[in-house]
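Budget justification note: compute hours in this period were largely spent on complex prediction jobs such as the one shown. Inputs:
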Amino acid sequence: MSESEYRSVFISEVKEHLVEIFDRLNMIEQKGAAGDDVLFDLFRRFHTLKGMSNTMGQTGMGEVAHLLEELLEYIRKNPGSILSFREVIMKGVNSISLEIDNYEKGLKFGSEEVISELSYISRAIKDRLNVQVTQPSPEQIDSKKLEGLYEIIFEVNKECRTPSVRAFMLLKELSSRINIIHSEPTSEMLRQGIKPSRFRVYTKEKPDYNIIDAVLKRTGDIMFVSDGPYKAEDGNKPVRTVKYIRIPFERIEELSSGLDELLLLWNKYRYSLGENNLNPHLSRLEYGFKKVLGYAERLRTVPASSIVPKLTALTESTARSLNKNVKLVVQNENIEIDKSIIDRLEEPLLHIIRNSVYHGIESSDERIMSNKPPSGIIEIIFREEEEYISITVRDDGRGIDRDKILRTAREKNLIKDENLADDEILELIFVPGFSTVSEADMTSGRGFGMDIVRNVVWQTGGDISVKSIEKEGTEIVLRIPYQFASKKVVIGEIGGFRYAFPVSQVRCILRNNDIRISDDRKSVIRGEERISLLNGGYQKAQIFIICSGQEKSIAVGMDDIVFVGETRLYKVPYVLKSSKFINSMVIVKGICPVPVISTEFLMDERNL
Amino acid sequence: MPRKVLIVDDAVFMRGLIKDVFSSPEFEIVGEATNGIEGVEKFKELKPDIIIMDIVMPFKSGIEATREIRQLSGNVIIIMCSALGQETLVMEAIEAGANDFIVKPFKKDEVMTVVSKFIK
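Corresponding output:
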């Protein structure tokens, strides 16, 4: 249906309901009473009107219908009361009828007066019924009952409109698969309308994470927070003290690089023994060694919360200087991240937050005008995913103004193509030279632009993306590997340029005197084998790197090999992205960034 | 093959909205019903894969209809169409066998997120 069709169906259907409602009300007037079926019919019609008007954005009409629906619910329980309410029901129905007439004519009609009258009645009814309008407080549970049980803590997504139902669903799904002894809140409390933000489930033993994961996927809107044996929070139990010593981080790095070397040696040795040739002593040694590697890895990590105080302080001070109200909410800050990675991410995160406070979050007045709570929220959510840690920075501000981005990009000659897709427009904020001093003043600048933010993220082997909805907010997601991504490469030099080849694709490296070059200089001949030569035109080649693809091999002539080993992997900077031969870069101490050649692509190119 | 969808809602307006949400080659709207009784009948007749079911309807509520349909089929995906303030009813519907729910007013994406949890 098109929008105008919706409009006309909406108008005609509301009118139909109104005719029926007036009919019922007249009948009640004549009889002086109403049967259950009539009351239910009215209740249902108000309910339907509520849903339709809210969907069409006619919230005034929706509110009146909602209050009438509530009133009818009360009357259904107290049928005698219909006569004392018929007048106000009539008023409400009249106001809906006026609203729909005006909507049809494109005019506005305020239902404030009747809404305030109906709200007053609604409150009065609730008082009379002594209905608990406030949330029932959680039942005090006996902590002894929980002793020895296993506790799983979940959190409901803050944006979820129906937390009680989601929690109820999770509880139902979980209890069909694992034995749940207790939950807090209980499903009975959820039924009474308690809206949990966190809730806890208690089981006899540690549950299968696969089950929890499957149930969470099915339920949606709920996240796993933590689990462990239940601990009473009464403070009577002795607190386990942890002793700390200070160690310079470099020493830990020395230890882990030493262990990495050992691992390489071990792997070589293992390989030399061949498959299944490990005697029991060696396998115990290997087991112990892997355990130590695991400990060493944990030495390198710190909880993400270690940078939270700085982020909070920055948010508050920036907000204060701009006279804005902003709250920083951090979720899941206990996850462990490699110390050298979190250190590098500090500046980028500070920059993103500064941008949010500065450009994203509106002033309180502006927020109120656009129907938002006066105080803005910046959320930082740390998540452990399969291969990455993701850090989401989300604000509920005004979102990114696409037109402004395009204007700036054109002014700075960063784009020529006028027809960019929406995500391409947003990507422009990461282009070097996009953010400049004029925009980035003292508060949001520091000579640090989103291009540098992206570079830092790339340097860790991670990635960054942005989503933004105008008037609703912006979300930036950083995906960071658990450790720096690394790659084993061979780096060769030719005519002063260096290129890296992934070791996984290099079959062997041959010297000039190992081979013969065919007369047309199109292939390298070694014994019986002929291998296509990529750069036969280069006469001075001393060394040939033989890369093997799935079906064939290819030789690349080089002056020299300058490095073989493991290095840090970087994503390719924007400027190089147009080259299809290259999809990443590596950095080795003492050598500037070297592009990694995609040998598969080279092979395809030759076939063309 | 497109999944067969049955819409059970007493409001033409809502049925129109839901039809639009499912207007893609992955789905085929096989029928519409305007109340719970008709909903159960149409289910038996059309054997849909997915049912979008309103909660409050004349003659027979969506909860009753869900309970009856769930006894006839364990596989059909039943998604309740609810409004804010109906939490208790939604929980009742889930106990009666509904798989999930959407909340009015809804966006196409939200509906698809819910539906995609059940179809692979």
